[in-house]
Amino acid sequence: MRGSLLVAVVRVPGSPSLALYRDRGLVAEGRPEEIASTVAKLQDTSAIRVCWWNRSVATELVRAGLRISRCWDVQEAHRLLCGGWSAAPDEVWANAVALPMSERPAPLAGDLFDEPAQVGGPLVRPDGYLDPRVLGDERPSADDLAEWAELLFQVVARQAEQLQARSPTAVSTALSESGTSVLITELERDGVPIERARLTELITQAAGVPPESERHAAQLRADRDDVVRRLVPGRERTDLRNPAQVLELLHAVGVKVEDTRAWRLEAHRHTHPVVEALLGWRKAERIATTYGWGWLQAHVGPDDRLRGPWTTCDGGAGRMTAGAGLHSLPAPLRPGVAAPAGTVLVRADLGQVEPRVLAVVSRDEEFARATHEDDLYAVVAAQLGVERSIAKIAVLSAMYGQTTGPAAAALERMKRTYPTAMAYLDAAAAQGQRGEAVQTYGGRHIPVTQSATAEQARAVGRFTRNAVVQGAAAELFKAWALTVRHALWQQGDGTGRIVLMLHDELLIEVPQNQADDTVTLVHHTLTDAARRWSGGAPVRFVADVAIIHRWSEAKG
DNA sequence: GATTTCACGTA
DNA sequence: CGTACGTGAAATCC
Predict the structure, then answer these.
(1) Contact at 8 Å (CB) between A461 and A432?
(2) Cβ of residue A503 near strand B, that is under 7 Å?
(3) φ, ψ for residue A484 (rounded to 5)?
């Protein structure tokens, strides 16, 4: 924050134009391309930070070709401060000036009960709240723009103060979340490279040929279903998509299960041929319905790039989310994600990131020592005197709140061997169970729902226990990704780019001749980002990095 | 028509 | 009674 010039970009109502402000007033107004080039020149000559009320402004600048390096997104800062996703201007303002959220004026309903529209008056009401007229699409009016930008500067300053007071790391988390807000705009623009012929082939294997009509589609579905239904004479009319009917069918052939979930059916795979057939049918049906021809048509563009909507932190603990199946693409389809000619993909996976993050956030010195090796679970196993597989389950159980199962005894030893880390998790769980919000290492507020029953309270406890680890891991991951992105801009011709982010995995597309340099870059940026993020904690982070042509290659 | 339940893909 | 997400189909609730 310090030492950099804050500039604001706001939308000019009723026009495609954007306006650029600094503390002393208007700098420029014009089409997004013009403002993008003005901001680019400013970025080149001085240290600036760009802020906006809404990410859509950043989206326009990015689409105009601007590479935004430093920014402050007041919605992201607000989400960090308050938790959740909602971040309309009136909420952002109210929180920034420390007024109660519940007392703010209702948005205009656009009917006779609205108070007469305030025209030309101040945007801040006498009671300190933002005038509801700013919530409409065409408001504030063009006359109010300078004031709108001035209020934005005030919000940035107040948010920074609040974050500073909250935690030593929170301001840098806000900067990272703001950068991520721009990065997801780039992900949405660029998409993931697809080899259409290969993906088409894979979808055909699972879902059959593309249906030519509704009738044809129904016929293909029925053909697929018959393969399974034929195995149980007398039940050829079963609707396989209806769990109740499937349950009945299974009971009829002597498979006694309480529901039809795959993991439960796994044990009965060989009791009757229909079980195996049904499990295979389910896999194909998943691809046919969710990742089939409709999905291809909707999300893969004519340029053979798969695009979906992204959020920076909509997950309960502040993880990113993505639509269009980008975060849940079935493994069988992954060969369809492939580097275009002249480029390669570099795939980088963080190794055992959650326990390593736990070592940082809990400041457990003994647990931190375990992170010095590539295989953390092997060290834990040796220290606890158990098998590696048991140690792994014990560590994961501690972070997920599982108390039963094969690792129950090992959990007791964990408490003795790593008391600080375990106490950190227990404290987070206890807070959640009491109905209190928790905070991540980076300062994100994680609100919790109030529970009516003890069982619900325990579920909240498991959520907060996990959220402090999962959320902190997300913070490290975003900081790393931004460091990678910045380094890619500096490398070679600067065309390398991140195309997919998957909680602990980056998929990067670079020209072939940059492949080796990118591998080096990924390792170095991880060391740098982890050192900055952890404040120099003695915790090691590792990445598994591979140069590949298809996403399916080189998994761990 | 909107919401919930079941199911399952990913980390 | 292990966490989080997105998605679709059917059942269920207005």
Answers:
(1) yes
(2) yes
(3) -60, -50
pTM over cut 0.70: yes
The model's pLDDT over A291-317, given as tens digits with 9 standing for 90+, comes to: 999 999 999 999 999 999 999 999 899
Q: Which residues touch strand C (CB under 7 A)?
A: A 239, 241-242, 244, 289-290, 294-295, 308, 311, 314-317, 319, 321-325, 327-328, 393, 396-397, 400-405, 455, 458-459, 462-463, 466-467, 470
Query: Which DSSP letter does residue A101 get?
Result: G
The pLDDT tens digits for A151-192 are 999 999 999 999 999 999 999 999 999 999 999 999 999 999
A20 touches A31 (CB < 8 A): no
For the segment(s) A354-471, the CATH number from 1.10.150.20, 3.30.70.1530, 1.10.287.1490, 1.20.120.520 is 1.10.150.20
| Mean of pLDDT values over A61-81 | 97
- The CATH number for A5-166, chosen from 3.40.50, 3.30.420, 1.10.287, 1.20.120, is 3.30.420
Backbone phi and psi for residue A502, each to the nearest 5 degrees, phi listed first: -135, 65
Q: What is the pLDDT of residue A407?
A: 85
Radius of gyration of chain A (CA): 27
> What nucleotides of chain C have any atom within 7 angstroms of a protein Cβ?
1-11
> pLDDT at position A137, please?
56
Q: What is the largest CA-CA distance in chain A?
A: 82
CA of A494 to C1' of C13 (A): 55
CA dihedral A423→A428→A431→A436, nearest 10 degrees, is 160
What does residue A281 show for φ and ψ, rounded to 5 degrees? Answer: -60, -40
pLDDT in tens, A385-409: 999 999 999 999 999 999 888 888 8
Contacts of residue A345, Cβ cutoff 8 Å, sequence gap at least 6? A193, A337, A338, A339, A499, A507, A508, A509, A547, A548, A549, A550, A551
Going by pLDDT thresholds of 50, 70 and 90, the confidence category of residue A109 is: low
CA torsion, ordered A51, A13, A29, A183, to nearest 10 deg: 40
